[in-house]
Amino acid sequence: MKHTRFIRLLVLNLLFGGVATQAFSQNVGASPDYIKALTSEWTGERFPDGRPKVSDSILERLKKISIEEAWGVLRNKGFQNQYEGDWQIMLPDEAMTGRVVTAQYMPLRPDYQKQVTEQGVGKEGRSPKGGTNSWPIDILTNGDVYVADGYGKIADGTLIGDNLGNSIYAKSKRGVIFYGSVRDQEGLSEIDGFNAWMKGQDPSYIQQMMLSAINTPIRVGRATVLPGDVVLAKKYGVIFIPAYLVEDLVITSEVTGLRDEFGHLRLREGKYLAGQIDSEWTDEIKKDFLSWLENYPGKLPMSKAELDNYFKERNW
């Protein structure tokens, strides 16, 4: 009896002791195992940090997908909180896609900032020079988009200026999406190719706010964002897409676009009535659509094999 009680106490001590140790050594940057757990439905290649490695070709095709089409696909799959609008955009006519690196900012609390700095510098080997707002930038790779929750702070909430902007573009060949603000927008605009979606800009320096976490879930307005999501950013808003859904979203949206193109053409020709195109298609219209695809006047956005597989797996 005493032996059994001793074993139970030992197990409880190890269990709760382990939890306490884990809490005390909480990382600033999420571990690869944590990111893999967050994105467990992704079955493809991953980066060393655990984020899904969505292909460059899919990212390029995603640029041509409309915000409405992407939103519709996600909503049909139960993802209703992946969109945020009402942005200030540096290059509004240029779409941006990429793999998300997240950062969470909070109002400054000295004791918490001390712990973050000690953990980041002392245990994770992050740079002791400059502010902690440079840490998310240090880990960017080509194709990444730096997404930060700056809790909407504008004055004294500027997460980057032109120096950090140059570093971001050099590493990622992309830009930023900030639920917050930037400084020196004039200087940022001189970085060829750099783009930014932000809630404002201000000449002030960042003050009374702190970085609290890198590559953890964050909130960006109406959207919940995970590290490794794929982002589609346009002048009409921003969509954050779970990595495991992006390929299906792209081809579904591409086929929807082709259906719309075909339907508009046939309506202009007077071949069908609007009600026929807007409702479930008859076998005659489906056959006509497939024939039109076979003789499509241009280059289809997907391969013939992808298109065939799409129609095999769906009942229109």
TrEMBL record:
Signal peptide: 1-25
Record Gene3D superfamilies: Ribonuclease E inhibitor RraA/RraA-like
Record bears the keyword Amino-acid biosynthesis: no
Keywords for this protein: Signal
Pfam family of the protein (one): RraA-like
Signal is among the record's keywords: yes
Protein name per its UniProtKB record: Regulator of RNase E activity RraA
Organism, scientific name: Algoriphagus jejuensis
